[in-house]
Design brief:
By secondary structure, this protein is an alpha/beta fold. Helix content is about 35%, strand content about 25%. The two termini are about 15 Å apart.
Length: about 230
């Protein structure tokens, strides 16, 4: 009976960079967007692995109108959230990754991007080596650091309660959470993607969501309660 009560009391919390209105959230970091101006006539296509890179590009395109042409270029993306952001900004989504890990995404892209000039917009620090895999396959990729993340100092009173299921949206979200709180052995960690999953410490109970869509990932988290 006690075990059943624990299962039912598990709260699912999204740990990342924004609060969501459809689920409990813990914001552990903030994004700083870089100022940059690119000549998109040099490129045939774009790569985005996070919606923050799309937001950074859109913000700079408003400042530098000559960058508006990015919307005409085909975008190759990881994750439904990234796809939705590209479309919301009026861009073209040509391809969505079948696999959310950088190495596998690179393999998917190698034949598709052969002969193209590609701009990869990304965070300053990434755990994926996507561009290196593409360079090894002789894909002409230019990298633009579009933003960086910073941790937020949180009070210990904000620590999730025991037995919580924590859905981490990025490797840095797990890093910043760990900087704020000691890991409770009764937590369950769930990663939104393989790169985030591989950032977890080996001694914690963890799963990788089979879904990149955050609402579907929440549904997966709910199955861990029973």
């Amino acid at each position: 009976m006690l075990f059943e009560k624990i299962l039912m009391s598990r709260e699912v919390i999204i740990v990342g960079y924004q609060a969501y209105d459809f689920a409990p959230s813990l914001v552990v970091g903030q994004i700083r967007i870089y100022d940059f101006c690119l000549d998109f006539s040099r490129f045939d296509s774009l790569i985005f692995t996070s919606k923050n890179a799309v937001l950074a590009l859109e913000k700079n395109a408003k400042k530098y109108p000559q960058m508006d042409v990015w919307r005409q270029l085909p975008s190759y993306v990881i994750g439904r959230g990234t796809q939705k952001e590209v479309l919301a900004c009026g861009g073209r989504v040509e391809y969505i990754a079948q696999n959310a890990h950088g190495a596998e995404f690179a393999q998917e892209l190698c034949k598709i991007l052969e002969g193209q000039r590609v701009c990869y917009l990304r965070a300053k620090i990434t755990h994926s080596k996507l561009e290196e895999y593409l360079w090894q396959s002789r894909i002409d990729v230019s990298v633009q650091n579009a933003y960086e993340s910073h941790p937020i100092a949180l009070s210990q009173t904000q620590a999730p309660k025991e037995h919580s299921i924590l859905l981490f949206t990025a490797p840095s979200a797990y890093k910043y959470f760990s900087q704020n709180f000691a890991w409770n052995t009764n937590y369950i960690a769930v990663a939104l993607g393989q790169t985030t999953y591989q950032s977890f410490d080996s001694n914690i109970k963890a799963f990788c969501s089979p879904y990149q869509d955050i609402k579907k990932a929440l549904g997966f988290c709910q199955t861990l309660r029973i």
